[in-house]
């Protein structure tokens, strides 16, 4: 099950060196991604004259901008395909593959012969390379950890239709607006009951009110009563407040082996008694 996306509780402590490294690496990936778009946009006039030479200037510019737009159109494809691939083989390696595809495509655009040399094949290959350049590596790491702006009752229903022998689901509704969901979470135990994984979601407007801490404490108490040995979850490395909360509640933290942008937190429940 995908995991923690909440970010609230006590004030965040200072970032560790590992967390700073992860944020720097993620930022660098975003810079590389948008550099591709900036480079193409800056050279659009020259690209049109090279690959769409058989058309008038205005038509050339339109086709060049359409090829530019192709890089954005393929971004949902990156989320669907590479997001799933990241679940299967690890987000770290999938992220690196998308970065390599984007970089290699940018290099090929630079050495691609023009229409005067290879004819109609030039613009076709250019569009294909633009599609490859548009694969979004951020879609891999944010497949589940993206922002959730509204907690619908349908979402709550999906999260609370649980196997009561193994799962616990909590939903927090404000007394003044019971139709509004401000926080929800789940605790799912393994079939043997040895470990359980938690997930917590808190509406952004209600951060800092202790809702995430309250839910996590409820999960730990439930796990203790059920005799579950270990409770764990995964948190984005930049989610400082949630990591601080996990440490405050006695959880250890380590970088996930398959994703440096994800921190695995866990605690032995017996140690909390």
Question: How would you describe what is shown here?
Answer:
With 273 residues, the protein is α+β, with helices and mostly antiparallel strands. The protein has helices spanning 17-42, 44-51, 57-73, 75-89, 91-111, 115-118, 121-133, 138-141, 153-160, 211-226, 240-248; strands spanning 167-172, 183-189, 195-202, 230-236, 252-256, 259-268. Strands 1-2-3-4-6-5 form a six-stranded mixed β-sheet, sandwiched between helices. Helix 10 links the parallel strand 3 (195-202) and strand 4 (230-236). Helix 5 (91-111) runs antiparallel to helix 7.
Question: Which labels suit this protein?
Answer:
single chain, 273 residues, alpha+beta, six-stranded mixed sheet, 11 helices, 6 strands, 16% strand, elongated
Short description:
The protein has 273 residues and is α+β, with helices and mostly antiparallel strands. The protein has 11 helices and 6 strands.
Strand content: 15-25%
| Cα end-to-end separation | 27 Å
Largest sheet composition: 6 strands, mixed
Strand count: 6
Outline the low-pLDDT stretches: 1-12, 139-151
Helical content (DSSP H or I, runs of 4+): 40-55%
Tell me the overall shape: elongated
Q: Trace the largest sheet across and list its strands.
A: 1-2-3-4-6-5
Helix count from the secondary structure assignment: 11
The SS-based structural class is: alpha+beta
Radius of gyration: 24 Å
Mean model confidence by pLDDT: 75
Order of helices and strands: HHHHHHHHHEEEHEHEE
